[in-house]
Amino acid sequence: QVQLVESGGGLVQAGASLRLNCAASGRTIGPYVMGWFRQAPGKEREFVVSISWNGGRTYSADPVKGRFTISRDNAKNTVTLQMNNLKPEDTAVYYCAGRRTAWREGVLSETTFEFWGQGTQVTVSS
Q1: What secondary structure does DSSP assign to 81-92, as a single string?
Q2: Which pLDDT belongs to residue 38?
């Protein structure tokens, strides 16, 4: 079983950057596809970005494309989400998640992810 803990959230102004970290324990995340999802108040949780097991392939949802970058360090058992040029509409709780199902390009369903972190709040003021 993999346990995930997110950190790095906070309150920032529009245009700022934040770096979210996801630390895994229990097992190595090496074999797993990892992703970030987010849930804004009153909305359903949505896919943000994913990364293949070796970091060679990534896919970002359209709202964050060109602004958010996912990376991973399997040796350190961590996944990072670099968020630049943040907008008020990026305000949400951000979740790190993992799955064994192979990576594919495109929006991934949250139902295919097997383990989740508790989330970290990101608030962007205008």
Answers
A1: EEE-S--GGG-E
A2: 98
